[in-house]
Each structure stands twice: as structure tokens, then as C-alpha cells.
Amino acid sequence: MIPGIILMLLGLVIHSQLHDLTFIQQQLLGYLPPLLGGLAIILCISFNQGRLLLTTVNLLCLFLLIQNQLQSSLSQPANFVLFSCLSLLFPLLQLFINFIPERGLSSRWLIRHLPVIVSGYLFFWVAAQNHLLSDWFDGLPMGLIQMYSDPYLLSQWAVSLFAVTTLLGLIILWFRATLADACLVIITVTIAAMLALFSKSSISVLCSTLGLVLILFTVLFNSYSMAFIDELTGLPGRRALENTLRSAGRHYTLGMVDIDHFKKFNDTYGHDVGDQVLKMVASQMKQAARGATVFRYGGEEFTIVFKGMDEVRAIEIAEKVRTTIAAYPMRIRDKNRPENEKQGRQLRQRSGRSEDTAEVTISIGLCEKTRAHKDSQAVIKQADEALYLAKRQGRNRSVACHIAQPRTRRAATS
Ligand SMILES: Nc1nc2c(ncn2[C@@H]2O[C@H](COP(=O)(O)OP(=O)(O)OP(=O)(O)O)[C@@H](O)[C@H]2O)c(=O)[nH]1
Questions:
Q1: Is 204 within 8 Å of 67 (Cβ atoms)?
Q2: Which residue has the CA at smallest separation from atom 13 of ligand 1?
Q3: PROSITE patterns per the record (predicted)?
Q4: Which of the listed residues 32, 63, 92, 238 has the most CB atoms within 10 Å of its CB?
């Protein structure tokens, strides 16, 4: 959320500078949201970001209707009716978008969701074109006529709806914890601020631009994560490793790590527990390997890059990583355990059964880059050979290529 909030605060600074722009510059600024919106739509489709696509369309439709129909005073009944209705329509549609699960884009998905967003705006645009809106003024309920707090222009109903949408967005963010959900919350708040400060000049251009920039950043960051971050463990993946090794220079040590007897975990406890083990190993390695970077190489294999370190220094850190994992009490959760942690504890106490713990160990093969290595692949190959040696010598140990065998270590902690 923090970069988004900073971006929005930056908006306040930019707004104070907008008065100095010439008329032509202000006109040109008006083209920015459609351009950014078009770009965001292309990127959302390319990177399968359905909910961000719908939010872009929601924001863009709102902006276009404001630009086309709301450029004169709100004291005109037609304008007031349109403004009041739009300030309900936007949060209502965001509320709908919040609840949609992210399942990627398909033409069926688009046919099901896109008309919901566009039809509301189309309805008000047709009504405005046919001069019907002013006739609805007398029928407006009090909740839409009375402003929540002077001098802000949001009605009581609009404030309530924006508050509900923001709150639900925050709750969903708490559970799903995705970047897209954070982006949706910030955009809802930004548009609420835009409508509340609607009388300020260029406010709709500025807020729409900032909202679309935020969507673009989110889509790009999400696609970066998809390409470089391993979804299960949250560690950088193989592609990120290749990038790191390309820029690691000539002085580094590389460690190949493999979980011992991992197949047995899967066979005994199931694939889900296997995944839990992978997550635990990843997070413990990340914490213990201070000064080095951990990657998921693939399957149950990890790689540690010790930049600027020789094998002697690297094996000290590798040993710390290995002993930390060997000492970690991996709790195996019963598939039938209750969701609630407290209930689970009570049940175990009653049955006199404690939660199963399993010992997880890893083997590590290390290789320092020397002149003899043609490229990083040669270093990986040799580290793999050291790993193979560690497995053959009984597992749960670290072996370094250039350190004499007596220095091969096996921890007393295991
Ligand atoms: N749960 C889970 N299992 C995986 C994943 N990727 C690979 N595996 C499993 O990891 C196991 C790897 O086993 P092996 O390479 O035979 O070796 P091992 O059992 O770890 O034994 P040693 O390496 O000889 O100590 C296989 O059963 C794979 O199915 C994953 O993402 N999740």
C-alpha cells in the first residue's frame, strides 16, 4: 500500500502546481487518462489481470463521462443528477469487482463481467444525451441531495457506499494479501477524494491519471513477480538466478541445496505437507542465509549465491542454514484438524495426542567460481557434484568442492 499512498500524496503536490499550466497544456493533460487507460487495458489483457482490467474500465468510463457531460456548474439540475448518480455508480461497481476472484481472462469471463461495468455508464450517457436527467432532479432522495460534510461534494449515500467499499476492500486485502487488492482500495479512496473535491480545477484529470498510473505499476509488478518469483515459496526463481549470476562478477560461491528424502514426505504425508515443508525450508533459509541470496532452483532444490565470498566464508553460512533447518520442529498438521487453532489444541489435549513433528534436513554442495570455470553453468554443475557427494556421504551435511574432505561437515545438532 505504501507506494500507492506516496503516489497519491504526490498528487497533492502536483495539483498545487497545475495552476501554472497554460490553457493548451491543460488541454493536452486531458488526453493523458485515455492514453494511460488504453495502455493499461492492453497490459491487463496481455498479463491476464481481470480485476485490474475491470477497474481500468470503471475509472475510464467515469472520467470520459465527466469530461463529456460535467464540465459546467453542478448547480444545473441535470449535472447535479449525473454527478450524484456517478458518485454511487463508481463505488458500487468497485464493490462488485472486489468480490470477483482472480481467475485469469477468457472471452467467457469478459462477456460475463464487462457489460456490468459498461452498461451503467452507457445508461447515464444516453440519458444525458436525451436531456432526461434534469427531469429526475425532483425525484432524488434526500440522501443524495444532502452533502455529508460541507464544503465536500459527496452526498450522505455516496460517503456510506465509498466507506463500505473501502472497508470490504481492506478486509479482502487482509485475507488475500495481493497487490491488486491493495491497488483497488487505493483507487476507491482516490476517486472518493476526487468527487469530494470536484469543484477544484483539473482534479478529475489528476486523480484519474494517478489511478491509472497505479494500475500500470501494479500490472507490471505482478507480471514481474510471475516471471521472477516462485509462487509457492515467495523466493526468486530460476530466471532471477540467471540474472543474478550474469551480474555476480568473478568472485562468488554458489551453493546447491536439496531436501533429504523429500519424496518420503510426499509419500507419507501427501503433497500438501510436502508443499508446507518447501515453504518452511524456504523461509528458514532466507532468514539464516544472511549476506547471501536464496533462490528456488526447481522442485525440492534451492540455490544460494554468496556474492564476493570464498568457499570458507560460504560454508560457514551454509552450515548455519543447514543446522537451523535441522533444528526446526516441523509440525505436521492432521488433515482432519479443526480450522480453529484453539479448538485443535483442546482436542489434542483431550485425546492426549500431540501434533506430529517431523525432522527435515538438507544437503548442500558448494563451489567457488574460479578461472577454471567457463561460465556460471560450470559452477552450478560442480556445486551439483558436491551436493551429490554430500548425499552419498549420508546427507544432512555441506560439502565444498575446493575444501579438503576432512572439512566436510556434519552437524552435531541433528
Ligand atoms: N510437494 C511437492 N513435491 C515436489 C515439488 N517439486 C518436486 N516435488 C517432489 O520432490 C520429490 C523429489 O524426490 P527425489 O528427487 O527422488 O529425491 P529425495 O526423495 O528428495 O531423496 P534424496 O534427494 O536422495 O535425499 C519427488 O517426489 C517430487 O514429486 C513441489 O513443488 N511440491
A1: yes
A2: 263
A3: GGDEF (PS50887)
A4: 63
